């Protein structure tokens, strides 16, 4: 940038000099042409990059178009199959063979045709019919389009179809007119297959197929091959490759299995669940997967009402009206898929599906639902049902297939430790699929539909819902009844908060709105059951593992994305981008294995905690309990809020007669009250979901499958009930597997309890243990009488988790002197100490910063926020004593804030440094804190700017190299953006990361996908560090599972049993040291050079530009003196 500015200034000065020269002085044509060439070259390289970007965008569009073509083809296969339109199916197959666009579609077409031929063979009259002759001729025509380079699965299906065609030919009566033609056609088909059989077709005993081929069909295929080959050589077995890529040094110790002596026990086994029980649970789970909705009893105390919400809807005849609306749709004048559904699906099933969609929207208590989510809720169950009908028609019993696979896979969770010691979940799943000759990524995906088709289908179906779902409203004055729509679409203005600043931005979002009058009725007449989407629930059986390239899991019959897409940046398909960058099957496997381990950890509901929570939650309709509920994080019901009423405020007068200022004040108070009521209602509904779901899953073992964001940070898929969330979420869950406390476990329980209170963050472990002994009577009182005793637990930072710890301690103490044998299930947490800054300090080897974030040993935990506050205070004193430009503001601040700079004033700014907070954002954060200290707004703004500068300067003092690294991260992100490429990198565990902050725009008549520079630059430092903290968590997970230790995590908070905390801590520290012993900064530098300055770019860029970007991408930050090995001895690194 500096060089560019210098060049511009030089050219401008030359221009001014030239203009001041005598007019008749001529300029050399050679010089002019030289300048023009230079400028042209500088412009040319950008034009060349735009050409590349245009080609890349076209390739992505082509790929997206191909996916849509595949989806349409699959939908057509289903439609033609169910309508028994064989000729259309044959034409579709022929088009696929000729276009060669979707080779994976052809085997499915041949499979369907084979099933049609099997159906013909079951009846003599069908064999003799003209329809069967037409089918055979159509099949023989297809053979002309078969070529040598078809997929192996296509050839196998063709062999199967050839076999049934032979049976049909042999069983058909002799017909002088047609038999000769049939024989000739068949001979030509057989001859062609003989040519392919010699070299192109392979089948082996342990071969895994992309589509399901039964064992009988496999025998038939082998028989056909033997007939066609003079000798038959079966395909050899594939050699088992390494568990992980040899390039991933961090997981090289995991390539070998843990020794039996060092392996604890299977962490995924629950002692009281046997194979028979799991098999029954799996049957129930498959039924749940095949449906869309589940009704969960509303177990929370509600207003007494004679009529429930369900009964009201029944009185209004929504189900009958939906049926009537569907009858009015003309199959010939609507979307083909809608027509197929109307013609082929049982009408009762279709009506029931739509009815439950409406019921779900109403029963969950919120008056706004995302329009996209609602569309998914409408169309997904219909597609599922259509898929079920298709499978039935094909004789394809998917559930039976998965039952056989699961019968082997479940050995991982019930067998002795050898299976889990010698295999990852992914490896055992692959072996289980091999028992059925299935590819480990096998899935019948009918449910995927492109957005355009989804919108078209939904518009038809949703209009039926909107017209059918009406409710009566009685006019206040006349008593006249009118029928109003329950649902409508609205564009809602949503406030979006930023992690980097305290200001908000508004964005419009299309939402499904439920009529407020209807919601008022349901508030008076609550639902007996709440309807939930089955995809939003925890699982009661172990999830299906994620496998290579992040495909597979976690449901057995329905595919899901492993990376969460960002709706704000729809143009970047994150899952596709990740898979395109995976260059070998073994790349990224550690990431997928870690997700599998986290998702396979078994949990149960902590029932005593749930009972106490329900008791407190049932007080949420009592205004006098507001103080208690606020302390415990329980929202109030919406009917406890007082909203100003016009008549009560002004009497029966006209609006025009009211003083303008008084009315404005009333309107403002009313708007604020409604906003608070709606926000509280939303929070109350979320709390309701958690409570009723926890009640529903009492006594059951639960699993929380995980996926991740594009950086690799992991999240449970269940949004309502999981261990990731607030204090309430965490308190109602505990490990399903119990472990004896052992020699140190009881101490860890007591320490965990004290840690949760948040009152001794600066105290040593020894002091905390002394405090735990002193508070033991209060702890026991809290456990025995949580709502009637001293209520010590309520004063904690995390009251609900503190109470759960109290209960566990009380139960353990019942064992007296034998407390070490108590079987504990409560997770004990170990939190990172400002984990983002820990990674920064490790990257920069900042000794001072490392000390403050506890990377080194100390007697008591250090607090980086207090340290920075002290440094800021010291700088303020220096300014007060100096004659510098900041003296006046420092003295004025002393008058307003005479005490030392409080920790809380600068805490958020220090915390969000890792998120890339800007100076502007920091000023807003500090200004808010100063206002809370009653400093006036104008002064607060001046002081905030001053304190923000001093805070950043103080951070630079302690984290000198780290902050320099952050600046370099921003610089290289800007460099990649200037080259019009999005920022991307690969994590130390092999996961490709692509920042999705791009927009589709037109540049020089070219439609290209370009990065949003500011977003790319601001986001890269925090995203890079988050990819490192997720890597550290995954390494800890992998190594814990490797040794048979239970592990769970919420980002930088690691959980395990009380008896394994010490070992988990050792693993956690060793993996952090191993991670930061890698030359991460140098690797990042080399990655940017090889990725953005390719040989092609070297040809395009002028040499000066190439040198400039090479210089930008070269790391020059000098590291500090921190010895990273000291982390191993730090007690408070994670504590």
How would you explain this protein's 3D organization?
It is a single chain. With 1135 residues, the chain is mostly helical. Among the domains are: 65-202 and 212-228; 606-700; 724-826, Helix Hairpins (Orthogonal Bundle), CATH 1.10.287; 836-1129, 5' to 3' exonuclease, C-terminal subdomain (DNA polymerase, domain 1), CATH 1.10.150.20. Helix content is 56%, strand content 8%. It contains 44 helices and 20 strands. The strands form nine sheets. It has a three-stranded antiparallel β-sheet with strand order 2-6-5. It has a three-stranded antiparallel β-sheet with strand order 14-20-19. The chain has a two-stranded antiparallel ribbon with strand order 1-7. Helix 29 (745-757) crosses helix 30 (765-784), helix 29 (745-757) runs antiparallel to helix 31 and helix 40 (1013-1042) crosses helix 41. The longest helix has 54 residues, at 29-82. The two termini are 45 Å apart. Belongs to the phage and mitochondrial RNA polymerase family.
How would you sum up this structure in a few lines?
The chain has 1135 residues and is mainly α. It has 44 helices and 20 strands.
